[in-house]
Write a structure and sequence with these properties.
alpha+beta, 7 strands, about 10% strand
Amino acid sequence: MARWRLSCDACGAGAWIGPRGAAIDAWCEACQRGATVPREAPPPRCACGAKLTLGAPRFVELSSTLQHLDAVLAAWLEDAAPLGAILPERPRFLTDLTPPDAAPGDDAATRDALGALRAGAWRRALTSLSALRAAGGATGRVARAVGIAAERTRDLALAERAYDRALAAEDDPATRLARGALRATRADFAGARDDFAHAGDRREVRWNRAALAIVEAVAVTPGLPAAAVIAAAREEAGPPSEYWSDATVGRLLWSLLVERARSRAPRDGAACVDARVLRAAEGELEHETFWDRALVAHGYAALGMKDEAGRASAPLARERLSRLMEEPFARGTTLGPALRAIASALDAGGPAAARVAVTALARRAEVSRYRLPCARCESGAIGVDEVVEDETGSG
């Protein structure tokens, strides 16, 4: 179990946090005092009333949390860029770029080329593998390796041709998956559907079949895809992941609809239709996480839909700020006033004033260094100086 050593870079004040024998070294992030509590029944609060930290200190998350808050406030003001910079890039279609292994009968040139591919020397591998294929070594494995190297170097047309040659030599589920993903990306829906139908039933293939159904439906349906199409895609994909950066049917559908709305010219008279469709698509998101709600706020901000951007962003910003105010370090004298200033600015001046206050706090030297102002000397910054894995607690 990990132990964290905190210390001030000016006066040296600090403490250990984590298990130590039959006890746990705790730390109060509000008053910045250490304590030792029984391992079996540690008290939840310090004598000052704040919750004790028994594991990883919470204040190290302050900088990123302020970034998230600022991005949501920006979306409230119809500036989608800050949220767009932190939202995860979820791959639309999954593939398999695992290099093939060398076979016992391979010559030295083939082994060297495949070794370069496995080592990540993709351009060298592509040159060598292409030369092997031109010299007559166009086995299915070599052709697949050419396709992988070409994908890694972003030559997708060459990659697809290489997969064609590989499949002509030997039908292989992994190559079907890879070629199907490329076909789907360039909207060859029929070709992708055929490849995915012959690519087996692994998780990536099931997701690709589900994603293809949603992508194709959005491409050919003026409004929201039929409920039966969405339900079938969900059944194909399986239980939706709660992990923040994973793709789900609802997340994919929302992103596609926003892209489609952005591509339509206002003269089409589709803005009102898109607004109704997007509001309906909000209900298709499987989760209510910060990242899902931020995805919605970002979409409306990117489309310049002021009212909808505010509707999505305002409660998310207030919730994020409320959670930040509940953190132990928010009760202390070093950061508490600055956090309360953000809340006051939001109440009095709205998102623009709150962004100014957020920026002021985020730019403080200690916060940008993932540290806190030291309450003891008031001139240094206290932070994590060491993390050790030591179940005996000999820190």
